[in-house]
């Protein structure tokens, strides 16, 4: 429903002067207030109301609200809230909430404040905080910063989707009070009997519900038509069966720390998504000064100092409180931020820069109009010296110690990300001297340095990572102990999927093959090895980017048009520094909001497990309820985990472009599976050896949309599974 209201707000106060939220004639909210409305169309200078007095006009859809955010939180030390309102008996409720801790007051219906509100005049309404309307008592003490006017929530009953799922289910999503007796289905022209098994509404997406129906006959290839009332039908063609098998006798341990993210928000986030490793990293931490928790954004934001949020110690504390592990980056350049306000390139000193911070017009980007860097001013203007003993002292002083430490971040490109601190290009020797990791940013810098090929030439024509591993191996031998536990790299898919059209989505979903592939090499030292490469299961997946077509002549990597990242790195380690673990502390799906980004994440987490990757953290913090967050929830949500041993899966078809099937077990008996259908049509799978029994099922995607759907199902012996298009499914034997 739509409501229309004209509102004038003021907060009365007995401590200080009244605070005005909105004054007619201003055309906008008062200074210190922001529009945080949702699902609404608003006009802050409407004169359509009585007397043509300027007011805010609001039309909301279900769940929408006019919401005003106070930059300074208010409390019940104010006397109340006064506003003028006009409308055709608008069914509005007012409530107060806090964006910092998500607390909300009781919802106060306008009808409990005035019954005379009408379209012919504005009615003045006052909410007394010490005696809330409707005998709701006193407004609780809290740091309120949002005043919300919410329209009546009337939801039209509607069937939104109905899809085949697993062996014999229909998954029906709906809104409002629909009549489920209207749902019927025919399979290849014959009516099937349906029984309603469960209606489920996830606690964190309450506006949506899913209802599962069980068919009295298994889903099979052919035409499925689901009718939901007279005018709504959903039709599918279920394809022919694809065959596969699992072998629970053949298992391989999955490293527990592959389910990591960068910068989780808090302990609840970690627990609800089941995050196992939490990285404190990225460009800003290179300048982290524990003495004051200052940092500098570098080239990401006008080389400005600021206070780090969160600070290191509270971060390590909440990670530990959540029972999870931390991966902590220690700065390794010669400087860290000295305060929260300085910046490297003031306009007053360098008047001729390309751009300036829109929020601080004096802070520039350090670039001259012709693209060259300005010569940096002395580092001490912005930074304070940093060295290895200060780093050791920082770690020593930490009340909660990090589980794993990396030495800085993408330091090989410091001459651009931190041009002000380190203007000279970093070469092989300096990087080795500073870094034990090396958290290298991308494919290009795995094999060379910023200095360029003269640097490769100066190092026996060896590519960077093999050289780095060999040096660390040598140094470890000399020291008589292992000096590097993890080879840490960053990996960002190189194909361009930015168009996000059908072709780009399909490309995004198949490029996960660059994680794995197969590589059979006798040695990594010479190009002639190319002849030895005969990938048996992923024939020649060449990267669908510049990497797949160009071979920089100086590189000595075998098969450099294919990435095969995990096996390639494992082989490199095997050859140059055996026993080192492999870590990927930054990677992403290329789209955090599109369903295909979520499916890429599901597929990637499955691939990490099968291929023995040791640890990984997603860049950056996936939205808990977005497609990428749900990929973590699928494997690990709220205490229900994918198994810790990967079970062998064989599929008859070479369908890895559009399908991922991952099986696991923890006890060697019960099976947990994840299947991700990356195709735009359903897939119909017959996988032998899946034990019959009761299974817990979770899924997201497809027409059912991005939500935490779950139920319990029975799987019969030899049953086949239908997975809707663009859907990821988890099922765990109970
Ligand atoms: C108010 O904010 C909402 C989203 O928060 C936005 O959609 C809307 O356009 C804004 N309205 C005005 C008039 O600024
Ligand atoms: C709200 O809807 C009314 C009636 O359709 C319309 O006159 C008014 O302009 C709308 N207000 C806004 C802000 O869109
Ligand atoms: C409409 O609202 C005005 C202002 O509150 C009030 O004076 C008037 O009596 C109301 N009219 C009706 C018909 O309720
Ligand atoms: C179906 O559509 C017809 C015509 O479009 C309409 O008259 C009828 O009310 C609709 N029935 C339902 C159940 O929505
Ligand atoms: C850019 O301009 C600066 C200052 O005029 C000059 O020193 C520098 O050489 C120029 N760079 C290039 C690449 O032309
Ligand atoms: C690091 O800096 C501190 C403070 O300036 C100094 O006391 C210390 O000797 C330095 N350590 C090294 C290894 O240079
Ligand atoms: C998590 O699981 C617990 C125990 O099964 C349950 O009580 C709780 O409601 C769940 N929380 C969420 C947010 O799903």
From TrEMBL:
It comes from Rhodocollybia butyracea. It comes from the Eukaryota. Residues 1-17 form the signal peptide. Pfam families: Glyco_hydro_44 (PF12891). Keywords: Hydrolase, Signal. This is Glycoside hydrolase family 44-domain-containing protein. The keyword Signal applies. Residues 294-493 form the Glycoside hydrolase family 44 catalytic domain. One of its GO terms (molecular function) is hydrolase activity.
